[in-house]
Amino acid sequence: MKEGFKIGFSRVDITPPLGAPIAGYTFLRKASAVRDSLELNALAVSDGAHAAVVIAADLLDLQDNVQTLELRRRIASAAGVADEAVYFHCTHTHLSPAFGKADPNGETAFDGDPAYEEELIGKACIAAKAAVEDLAPATIAIGRAEAKRISFIRRFRMKDGSIRTNPGVNNPDIKEPIGQVDETVQVIRFKREGKDEIVAVNFGTHPDTIGGDAISADWPGFARRFT
To answer: At 1, is the pLDDT very low, low, confident or very high (cuts 50, 70, 90)?
Structure first.
């Protein structure tokens, strides 16, 4: 372990108000209820000389590159780290807002809500700063296993040469799946001196398992709360 290695953590609630636009499909949905809260989690890492901040937010995606750069700049300024030392990741739940102007080639056909986005940026800055202030000496443990029969391929090459998404179970016109399922679960455990441990989990399954128009962090939120 490199001398000076430290880890810090912070979490804030980023649940939008009812009526907020929900991204994830080609048509507009507005939040009618809150099934469970959306969260933004900030992990600060330091080698004793430089620090970086990794953020995971319960949002569909970041739609606009210009706005994303400004988001990172403001977070970096608040946390006291370099712009390039901010990594912003979306869990991709389909029961949340997206961030930024609509991408005509993406999954959302409408812009995000400017008022909510400004509030989100403010909360991200607070969380990043708090994570840096929470830095404590730590050690790392890494684990890897498999979660079988959860993920599945949804894109298939059909017998007529076309490619379809979700063509139906046992569809006789399916030729072959495109790609292979990655059932790997990767876990990083940070054991800190005098503070709570932190666990980061990586598992590749699409967070679109609920449906409807009630705000939800989908399975990533469930995993955070019950594991």
So the answer is: very low
**Long-range CB contacts (< 8 A, 24+ apart) of 70-78?**
71/99, 71/121, 71/124, 74/121, 74/124, 74/125, 75/121, 75/124, 75/125, 75/128, 76/128, 77/125, 78/125, 78/126, 78/128, 78/129
- Indicate the pTM of the whole model: 0.90
Residues near 155 by beta carbon (within 8 Å), at least 6 away in sequence? 163, 164, 165, 177, 178, 179
Nearest to residue 91, comparing CAs of 135, 126, 54? 54
Q: How many CB atoms neighbour CB 89 within 10 A?
A: 12
Q: What's the rounded Cα separation, in Å, for the pair 166 and 189?
A: 36
Per DSSP, what are the bridge partners of residue 124? Answer: none
Tokens of residue 197, six digits: 């441990």
6-54 pLDDT, tens per residue?
Answer: 999 999 999 999 999 998 887 889 999 999 999 999 999 999 999 999 9
